[in-house]
Design brief:
- The complex is a heterodimer of chains A (114) and B (112).
- Chain A has no helices and eleven strands.
- In chain A, the strands form two sheets. In chain A, strands 2, 4, 5, 6, 9, 10 and 11 form a seven-stranded mixed β-sheet that branches.
- Chain A has strands spanning 4-7, 10-13, 19-25, 31-38, 42-49, 56-57, 64-68, 74-78, 87-94, 103-105, 109-113.
- Chain B is mainly β.
- Chain B is built from no helices and eleven strands.
- In chain B, strand 6 and strand 7 form a beta hairpin.
- Chain B is globular and about 40 Å long.
- The N and C termini of chain B lie far apart (37 Å).
- The relative contact order of chain B is 0.34.
- The model of chain B has no long low-confidence stretch (mean pLDDT 94).
- The chains are: A mainly beta (114), B mainly beta (112).
- The A-B interface holds A 4, 31, 33, 39-45, 48, 50, 56, 58, 90, 92, 94, 97-101, 103-108 and B 4, 6, 8, 32, 34, 41-46, 49, 88, 90, 92, 95-98, 100, 102-105.
Chain lengths: 114, 112
């Protein structure tokens, strides 16, 4: 009964390095999302995938790419990390993008870019 | 000005107190309102959901929406130390999780 699993939980990167944040859900959900959470800014949507095979930009997509690998997995890639990308990243999933109330978040990845 | 404003706190109360958490918003088209609870180092979890105006009660929690004032509230009765968390409001014009606009969260501390 894992729900939404994010890996890694913590990561420190040097400026310019690349990395991929992994997210997997076991609830057979169609829609998946990536958010970042910064002090004083709230949760902001980076990218989302309404269904397998589709991805769309959210509010703050610059500097990120995503891949919906299959129905279970949705990864977020930072090609060239910058200190401004220091944040806590949350993956979420929902049965469809329509239903507000049936979305679940992972436990987050704390990323520091130095 | 942000679309959704929320006092960051922290709000410190003794156990058993009634807690009032609030959000104001500027977009009069918002009609879906949600409250999330986020424990330290965890992801947010949905606590309450209200469509349009009115009140909704679930156990010790009551969500209230005043669209005329563009103001929503979450009341917690008989607060417990286990209620210590950050509470995020979220709202949207239309249904769709990706449409939600989140507040920054209010940190609540309930002392025994």
């Amino acid at each position: 009964n894992a729900g939404v699993t994010q890996t890694p939980k913590f990561q420190v990167l040097k400026t310019g390095q690349s990395m991929t944040l992994q997210c997997a859900q076991d609830m057979n959900h169609n829609s998946m999302y990536w958010y970042r959470q910064d002090p004083g800014m709230g949760l902001r949507l980076i990218y989302y995938s309404a269904s397998e095979g589709t991805t769309d930009k959210g509010e703050v997509p610059n500097g990120y790419n995503v891949s919906r690998l299959n129905k279970r997995e949705f990864s977020l890639r930072l090609e060239s990390a910058a200190p401004s990308q220091t944040s806590v990243y949350f993956c979420a999933s929902s049965i469809t993008q329509i239903r507000n109330t049936e979305a679940f978040f992972g436990q987050g990845t704390r990323l520091t870019v130095v | 000005q942000k679309e959704v404003e929320q006092d960051p706190g922290p709000l410190s109360v003794p156990e058993g107190a009634i807690v009032s958490l609030n959000c104001t918003y500027s977009n009069s088209a918002f009609q879906y309102f949600m409250w999330y609870r986020q424990y330290s180092r965890k992801g947010p979890e949905l606590l309450m959901y209200t469509y349009s105006s009115g009140n909704k009660e679930d156990g010790r929690f009551t969500a209230q929406v005043d669209k005329s004032s563009k103001y929503i509230s979450l009341f917690i009765r008989d607060s417990q130390p286990s209620d210590s968390a950050t509470y995020l409001c979220a709202m949207s014009e239309v249904t769709g999780f990706q449409k939600l606009v989140f507040g920054t969260g209010t940190r609540l501390l309930v002392s025994p």
